[in-house]
Records
---
Amino acid sequence: MRYKRDKIKVNSRLLKGARVYAGMTQWDMANALGVNQATYAAKELGKVPFYAIDILLISERLGLGFDQINAIFFENKLRYQSDNMVAPNGYSLTQNEV
């Protein structure tokens, strides 16, 4: 079965706000992701897509919770149900699978 790769549409304003609130510069974030500052800036502006590992590293570095990650990277489309995270396509991932 093939899955459609949806382009992640980042909320640049929220991401920048979270980064600045955490006292991080674009250079700091670029260093954490292993890219140069220009590439991170393009990602933050939505011109270059984020990879799943980028989202994980950013959320750890900025201390983002589920609601913040959902708002910044997924347009609030993820649903959280007790011990399950449900994607917009209906796929459910339980904590046992993580």
Note: The first helix runs from residue 12 to 21.
---
Amino acid sequence: MNNAQQELAGEATETTLVTPLSQPQMDAVYAYGRQLFSAGSYQKAEDIFAGLCLFNVAQASYWQAKGECRSKRGDHHGAYRCFSAASIISPEEPQHLL
């Protein structure tokens, strides 16, 4: 297992969801998580994004959003791990590096 896989596997153990969602359902859940984030409910939003990361571990925007939540809550090491995962998944997108 390489470092990227270890990083993603380490993050994916926080929450366990059983039933997979369709992409339109995941998009709706993501939008709800962004609403929670905008309202300042960072822990609730992080829980949403953590679940989405489990359903699609290769979606950089889920890791980015989870990292933003962690950053707002003061967990900068956790945010760094999420941003690192996002940048590994999608290195051509510079927002992961900010």
Note: Confidence is low (pLDDT under 50) at residues 1-18.
